[in-house]
Amino acid sequence: MYDGGPLVSNAMDMGKPYVFVAVNYRTGGFGFMPGKEVLQDGSANLGLLDQRMGLEWVADNIAAFGGDPDKVTIWGESAGAISVFDQMALYDGDNTYNGKQLFRGSIMNSGSIAPADPVDCPKGQIVYNTVVTRAGCSSAPDTLACLRALPYDKFLDAVNSVPAILSYNSVALSYLPRPDGKILTASPDLLVKQKKYAAVPMIIGDQEDEGTLFSLFQSNITTSAKLVSYLSTIFFQGATKAEMTALVNTYDDSLLAGSPFRTGILNEVYPGFKRLAAILGDLVFTLSRRVFLKDALAANPSVPAWSYLASYNYGTPILGTFHGADILQVFYGILPNYASRSIQSFYANFVYNLDPNNAAGGTSSRSKVLLPWPQWAKDKTLFQFFDNRGGYLQDDFRTKQYNWIDTNIGALHI
Questions:
Q1: 156 belongs to a structural domain
Q2: Alpha-carbon distance values, 109 to 306, 327, 405 (Å)
Q3: Hey, which of 8, 84, 126, 201 would disulfide with 76, CB 3.0 to 4.6 Å?
Q4: SS3 of residue 308 by DSSP
Q5: Among the listed ranges 77-86, 99-108, 118-127, 368-377, which one has the minimum average pLDDT value?
Q6: Is the peptide bond before 122 cis (omega within 30 degrees of 0)?
Q7: d(CA 296, CA 262)
Q8: Is residue 105 within 8 Å of 351, Cβ to Cβ?
Q9: pTM summary value
Q10: For the CA atoms of the chain, what is the radius of gyration?
Q11: Omega of the bond leading into 260 within 30 degrees of 0 (cis)
Q12: What's the number of domains the chain is made of?
């Protein structure tokens, strides 16, 4: 879907060429169908297995393309970032193939742990049953076999009959990696605490306004009571109303608060928009990242991690620095924008040296960075990327909200 050519060209200009591999894998209902039938069949999380097969292909073949199979960095954005951690956690952290590690570093743009109930949970079963009904397979003695026998177009139509991400349900996804007891043995938040993941050096961060894009379609959520009901019924069915009320109450409902952050009374496209955007962005991305880093540091204190907050689209009406903005800034590299130039330099250094600050190994001064990027563990410091400069930000904002999420993450499984 994304052309890696500009990324590779910029790396070559920096004197740090690398081989870019994009792995196709099954998504949506093709790769992440839930339901007890899928679990019993052993067909859960096929998308993650596709990704793992792609990494095995790299191990077997990349040397023929000039790549080094011992120096693989996995990188993803959004669902791809969640997949990066899932690959770290697959098989309880066993990322070896033919006696060697499949990857030695990871980069996660906007995503990390996605706490989730099992494949056969009630919410997942509703998704499966809905697809079966839409496909006309309800009366079949083996509904899964019936789905498999469908023509592609008919199955695609059935898969798309459940809510998608840009809908009222937003990031309460119908299809996502769920624990299956075999390849993903538990919810990712638990696997971190249990040290059941491949602990490799990593870069992880977020856009400042992750939730705005996913809060455009819920204009009827105008009160705290409606917000509590929305989160309880659409997102976290295992949470109590009291828990959701406590979460919502940590977020200010005034026009001066919420996301896009730091915009005063502006950008409230409907009553409650900025508050919902702040909550969704924090739960799925920004503050869950901080929970992940805290638990990863406790589990493996010697493994380095660097974290960031991107603010290069500050001032964009309604959306701010929105989810996915880094596809243009980072992936395609809108040079000579400071954000693009510095991030691509950091990433190239990391690919070569597992340290974004270490510019060794290249033939160009472009990979040298103007500001050092401190490890997150030292002072919980983020590198903050603006369009024309970089800076530092203490990772302690929205402390009350973070503390609640960290304490109650067990109730936040989707």
A1: yes
A2: 12, 10, 20
A3: 84
A4: strand
A5: 368-377
A6: no
A7: 30
A8: yes
A9: 0.96
A10: 21
A11: yes
A12: 1
- Domain holding 57: CATH number? 3.40.50.1820
Say what the pLDDT of residue 280 is.
98
185 token code pair: 């043995």
- DSSP code of residue 214: G
Q: Following DSSP, what letter does each residue of 43-98 receive, concatenated?
A: -TTHHHHHHHHHHHHHHHHGGGGT--TTS-EEEEETHHHHHHHHHHHGGGG--EET
Q: What is the pLDDT of residue 184?
A: 98
What region does 226 belong to: left with phi over 0, alpha with psi -120 to 50, or beta? Answer: alpha
Does residue 413 lie within any of the structural domains? no
Residue position matching structure tokens 């980069």: 107
d(CA 319, CA 322): 5
The domain in which residue 50 lies consists of 5-211+303-312+324-392
SS3 11: helix
For residue 328, the model assigns a pLDDT of 86
Tell me the mean pLDDT in the region 397-407: 98
The predicted structure's pLDDT at residue 187: 98
Classify residue 125: in a domain, yes or no. yes
Selection from 171, 187, 372 nearest residue 286 by Cα? 171
Question: What digits encode the pLDDT tens for the residues 317-335?
Answer: 999 999 999 998 888 877 6
Rounded to the nearest 5°, which phi and psi values hold at 251? Answer: -105, 125
Domain assignment present for 261: no
Tokens standing for residue 394: 């203490």
DSSP string, 292-356: HHHHHHHH-TTS-EEEEEE-TTTT-TTTSSBTTTHIIIIII--TT-HHHHHHHHHHHHHHHHS-T
Do β-strands 100-101 and 96-97 pair in parallel, antiparallel, or remain unpaired? antiparallel
Average pLDDT along the chain: 96
- The separation between CA 81 and the C-alpha centre of its own chain, rounded to angstroms, equals 4
Spatial CA neighbour of 109 closest among 73, 84, 81, 82: 81
Mean pLDDT score, 87-94: 98
Of 149, 182, 194, the C-alpha closest to 45 is: 182
Q: How sure is the predictor about 247, in pLDDT bands with cuts at 50, 70 and 90?
A: very high
Structure tokens at 409: 């993450």
Structure tokens at 186: 């538990």
